[in-house]
Amino acid sequence: MSVFAANPHDPVIVRAHDAELLPEIGHLLLADASASNGALSAHRIQLARGAGGAVPHRHDRSSELFFIVDGALELLVGSQIITAGSGDLLVVPRRHDHAFRAAPTSTADALIVITPGVERFDYLRQVARIRRGEADRDSLLTEQDRYDTHFVTSPVW
Asked: Does domain 19-136 have CATH number 2.60.120.10?
């Protein structure tokens, strides 16, 4: 569920019980770009020990912030794999290849913020449908520009 601010000067609040949960991919949808008048898009991930998160990709128009609430997240940034732990913050600038997953020996709980915001909740819902076997992964290929999520290959991931 997205929450819409009446004007750009209104605060945005999303109550925990109003956030949409996508259990297939461990995402909790908080605020899409339309809720923040384009300032940001935010969601939370909660991944089981060693669970996959996102395949290698890049964003051409936005930077992506990862704040690790608890556990450990492995992140591909360019050609490096970084492990970020509880309390760590990582900002991936636009046009940098990246991916993420829970560390093999840990769960991961992280807040992800994309700025400026991109309407991404429909993208994440489609990823959940793919995970459930209701859609094909190729269904996202034609939507890469719309969601500013461009898939890449990575020899180290």
From this structure: yes
